[in-house]
Amino acid sequence: MQLYSFFNSSTSYRVRIALALKGLEVDYHGVNLRAGEQRQAQHRELSPIAGVPVLVGDDGVSLTQSLAIIDYLDALYPQAPLLPSEPLLRARVLEVAQLIACDIHPLNNVRVLGYLQRELKVSAEAKDSWYAYWVAEGLAALEALLQRYGSGPYCFGAQATLADCCLVPQVANAERVGCDLQAYPRVMAVYEHCQAQPAFQRAAPGRQPDFIQ
């Protein structure tokens, strides 16, 4: 399999975690989002939205969108399942994953932050305030869900799920930009547990071939 990724992309990070948890190897292709490589015609052939990740299977199947990729991998390689079979627990995992992927991340990704500065001419301080506000809104909701329904060292029990694949990159991004995370003890307990696990360590940005200091 081929993975088109950027070391610091949280969506790519989710897929790398899923691959590592399942023990799957891929050929890694770095796509430098900072240099605009995702907008080149060759990459747009793979990703119409000009983004990462893109997974290309051995059979030539090409998929974009991290949640779709992980769902596909889970169906194809059922070892270490990331989506539980029990209906309510599956829904809880998806609830957390979609809170992160649909409510938090889209407001704070590179394209949105770039548009705020480039087109709307907001200051760096205003951009950082925007980021911190929406992260706080989202993580407060995430904390409430995990306090109410979560258990164990991971989001939901003793095994990592799609929820953990989404939580870790989001918290890592928030840490990187200096957000105050003290108000989210359950979120941070899950994050710290995951960070100590070999699969999550292998997927970390600093371990990727295209890592830039």
General description of the model:
- The chain is an alpha+beta fold and 213 residues long.
- It has two domains: 2-80, 3-Layer(aba) Sandwich (Glutaredoxin), CATH 3.40.30; 87-199, Glutathione S-transferase Yfyf (Class Pi), Chain A, domain 2, CATH 1.20.1050.10.
- It is built from nine helices and four strands, in the order E-H-E-H-E-E-H-H-H-H-H-H-H.
- A four-stranded mixed β-sheet has the order 2-1-3-4, with helices on one face.
- The two termini are 27 Å apart.
- The model has no long low-confidence stretch (mean pLDDT 96).
Which class of the largest domain in CATH terms? Mainly Alpha
Residue share in helices? 40-55%
CATH architecture of the largest domain: Up-down Bundle
* CATH-defined topology of the largest domain: Glutathione S-transferase Yfyf (Class Pi), Chain A, domain 2
List keywords for this structure.
Glutathione S-transferase Yfyf (Class Pi), Chain A, domain 2; 213 residues; 2 domains; four-stranded mixed sheet
Short characterization:
Helices cover 54% and strands 7% of the residues.
Describe the SSE topology:
Elements (H helix, E strand, L loop, with lengths): L1 E4 L4 H12 L5 E4 L10 H6 L7 E3 L5 E3 L1 H11 L10 H18 L5 H9 L5 H26 L12 H15 L8 H11 L2 H6 L10
